[in-house]
């Protein structure tokens, strides 16, 4: 006789998984999440390319016109050469550093600004909340990309600092709005009331009581801001609003467009940096989705109960 016994293994193991997650911390949760693992793996590869480009190419000056122009891919030049005689693979490897710096630095400073404005507005309330919320809403409704072009043009194009400032100024408002909404839901909780009764300062309560409960949301906002920075910076540099003499994926796209790479039989000059921009964006997006799932149980995939066959 054969019978089916359905055991709700997911429900039975839930307490054990919760305890393990508490002991292992957020790193274990990230490593167990498939999206986070894939995104983190792609990000680590790009970090290696940015940190030690000499390990991946023998060319030491990727801007040097040292090779035969318009060569096809070969063992000496994996992606061929540009119309000016530069190695495309070397430019791709060395360009990782600036693209990664822009993504991380702009994402970090935009997140810091979002935290300062969003959390402060929610906790302080009153006039401070009205003023900071008005400022956030103004930046939310302004068309972003035209504003970016105007700021980059009149602030003085050609420097990495200008690109970073433009990305931070235009990239903080969405995160600030999210963090304000979350902080509003925490403002009247018991643990904050007890901190006020103890006589703690507002700055102490915000930094040591409110922010630790919002860690997952802050990390998710950083990843979203970094994704925004990667794509926007590449767009700015492609339009010629960055430094055309610097080495980055955006400037590679700019020069390939100027030299009509697709029309002259050099498609990899355009495809390779575009693919890297897309891959780095995918890495940040996957990690962002993963942190949403880790911080919000309602977004996690539901595991079906296992069905075991018992023979008697």
Automatic annotation (TrEMBL):
Domain ABC transmembrane type-1: 96-290
GO CC terms of this entry: plasma membrane
Membrane-crossing residue ranges in chain numbering: 36-56, 100-124, 131-154, 160-179, 204-231, 268-291
Keywords of the record: Cell membrane, Membrane, Transmembrane, Transmembrane helix, Transport
Database matches in InterPro entries: BP-dependent_transpt_permease (IPR050366), MetI-like (IPR000515), MetI-like_sf (IPR035906)
Topology in membrane: Multi-pass membrane protein
Pfam families per the UniProt record, alphabetical: BPD_transp_1
Record localization: Cell membrane
Family: Belongs to the binding-protein-dependent transport system permease family.
PANTHER family for the chain: D,D-DIPEPTIDE TRANSPORT SYSTEM PERMEASE PROTEIN DDPC-RELATED (PTHR43386:SF1), OLIGOPEPTIDE TRANSPORT SYSTEM PERMEASE PROTEIN APPC (PTHR43386)
Protein name: ABC transmembrane type-1 domain-containing protein
Species annotation: Rugosimonospora africana
